[in-house]
Amino acid sequence: MITLIKSAKIIDTSSPFHQQTKDILITDGTITQIADNLPYKKDYQLVEKENLHVSCGWFDTSVSFGEPGFEERETIKNGLTVAAKSGFTAVAVNANSNPVIDNKSGVEFLINKAQGFATKLYPIAALTKESKGIEMAELYDMQQSGAIAFSDYNKPISNDNLMKITLLYAQNFDGLVLSFPKNKAIAGEGIAHEGENSTKLGLKGTPALAEHIQIARDLFLLEYTGGKLHIPTISSAKSVDLIKEAKKKGLQVTCSVAAHHLTLTDQELHGFDSNYKTNPPLRTNKDCKALQKGIKSGIIDVITSDHNPIDIEHKKVEFSEAKNGTIGLESAFGAINSVLALDDFIDNITHKPRSIFGLKAISIAEGQKAEISLFTPEESYTFTKKHMLSISKNSAFLDKKLTGKAYGIFANNQLVLNA
């Protein structure tokens, strides 16, 4: 199969064609030619879109699909289709299924179930057995089966010694440990950011301090043990400062931020809409601006959708009873691109996450395997239910104005485009 992508502006700092508008010819999944005005032949698969931009394939490092066990929230099949149409050529899938992915057979199930799709699935296996935070899971065996990192999704490891031992043990096979930034004792039963809005609304608050204390603990442990630590979905200004200082010390620490924490604040809670109930909670405008600055300065390494489908029975209920989480694949690019310049963040969803999670580097260059995201950065629109492709519809971006839209992807020798 031969595919011709016409007049695409290439956004790829690793490519000799960065910031140039070119035609791209792909033959049997490999980029064979990049040039001006390549001729079209009738047997070619043609991609020609308004204001077309391309980059290396986007990689989302925090995605939940539900399957196995929570297929009413999302299935692997539909989830990977949603990811492709949202511009993502690779996703790292969290272990928060039923049963939890805490052994090699669970990892192999995910990988086998995802065979043949354009978007590649990479499992993030549980850090502890059943994600209960008591006993370390079979990390080495799961890595050998294909797990790229280890995390108890949205659950902090309260046992300091367990985290210390895990960081030490994972060094034996260069494993990447994720630690969710939340001190449970400080957070208590809080369901919103502790501050002016939570007080006005009568919602139990979770102070940003709960995040800071956990990050500080993990950084002290990392300094003691060595190894690699990734802190997912930070949400506050002070967290950026803590990680900045740790990087100055030379610690191998990286972090991510979710698209909704870059763009939304706790002002959204005034309608008690449970779609805005997330973990960590939405915080202040000051935190939002600090996170955006953290991306621009390079302190924050990765942007994720933190895509977490929740079925209507567990979401369309009283705010205090609703489960945390928002879908985010469909809205991720438009949300991020609405608050950051394209050049400020594209590496944070392409090259940086691939490097951190141990994936093979890719580039838009002749002779390279084609793994390409297709998008336009300038189209503005209101995000509505028609844009939601997930089985669950719990989006924090419903009726928000977004700028930038994914056209689809070319990956695994497959072209997937939005209708």
> Can you identify the CATH class of the largest domain?
Alpha Beta
What's the oligomerization state? single chain
Structural class category = alpha/beta
CATH architecture of the largest domain: Alpha-Beta Barrel
Are there runs of 5+ residues with pLDDT below 50, and where? none
Number of domains: 2
How confident is the prediction overall: mean pLDDT?
97
Radius of gyration: 21 Å
The CATH homologous superfamily of the largest domain is termed Metal-dependent hydrolases
Task: Predict the CATH topology of the largest domain.
Answer: TIM Barrel
Number of strands: 18
Biggest pleated sheet: 8 strands, mixed
Outline type: globular
* Termini gap: 21 Å
Tally of alpha and pi helices: 14
What keywords describe this structure?
419 residues, alpha/beta, Urease, subunit C, domain 1, TIM Barrel, 2 domains, four-stranded parallel β-sheet, 14 helices, globular
